[in-house]
Amino acid sequence: MKAMLCKEYGPPEKLVYADTEPPALGPDGVRIRVHAAGVNFPDLLIIENKYQFKPSLPFAPGGEVAGDVIEVGAEVKDFAVGDRVIGMCGWNGFAEQVVVPSEKALRMPDGMPYEVGAVLPTTYGTTVHALIQRGRLRSGEWLLVHGAAGGVGTAAVEIGTILGARIVATGGDDAKLARLKELYGVEHLVNYKTNPDWKEIVKSITGGGADVIYDPVGGDVFDQSLRCIAWDGRLLVIGFAGGTIPSAKANLILLKGCSVVGVFWGGFAAREPETSRKNFELLFDWWKHGKLKPAISHRFPLEKAAAALGALARREVVGKAVLTVGRASP
Ligand SMILES: NC(=O)c1ccc[n+]([C@@H]2O[C@H](COP(=O)([O-])OP(=O)(O)OC[C@H]3O[C@@H](n4cnc5c(N)ncnc54)[C@H](OP(=O)(O)O)[C@@H]3O)[C@@H](O)[C@H]2O)c1
Fold it and tell me: What's the pTM?
């Protein structure tokens, strides 16, 4: 089979489109013929050996796929050949086939396009967990979403809106922010690059501070967030796309009576699989009712995975980039 292989660590240009052996199938394995693969920030980290998981070389990046089941292991009860599934593989997804343990597969709702299934797990799985279980977001609360045009950011805007929050979205590019208004009707858009004192704008919009802050950027964005958070606010630590891991000032946490809350979707899904499954049922239900419409700004064939990762690294993507593998997605 073909795969986009990382044979040596480095930037996306180092990836090689090559023939490789299909993965072995264990007794609990589900073999998926991949039709679409979501592209995520951790894919950039894993090929540079900067991610928390370090698969041995060679491997393919790609943590999430959607496709058809073409073989199941002897002990698999819940899936059969022909099922349309999402696979949460962690890596090795940029390939024509991938094998996942059965608990890492989800049956897709009827009619869901493969490209939608492929972009749901990482960004939407993380965000529904972040806003519901970790952030306890309530209807009517102010939700401040940083890096809002990115993968997890657009998911936070969509899910926050569905949960009834009032949204303030930040980002570093006016054109990308304008897309958020077109796509999701976001009214309050703040450019944190051109407005260095953006925390004052947030305080003015929200009448004092945001109740829940969703931060996938880190660094100074995190520091300033602790200065525009409401009493009893929850600052959700999602990631550090800006490249700097911040330290929280304990005096500010005390004075604001707020919480700084860690979000680790992979750890949560492994420890609380039932809640994770229910989160996906919720996402599927929202999609079926037309409430969830993931934004996909870039589509590439598998062999152009480096271009997809390059677009992500250059901050050009709004929502997600997706790879199509094999035949076109219905
Ligand atoms: N905690 C978890 O379980 C979990 C799960 C998934 C992802 N994450 C993390 O969340 C972060 C974002 O992931 P993502 O998939 O949403 O990435 P993404 O699509 O690339 O979005 C990241 C956003 O961050 C902003 N940003 C600010 N400074 C940046 C910089 N120096 N380089 C790149 N982007 C920068 C960009 O918006 P502007 O250009 O508008 O500034 C960009 O849209 C990553 O750190 C990822 O590892 C965490």
Answer: 0.96
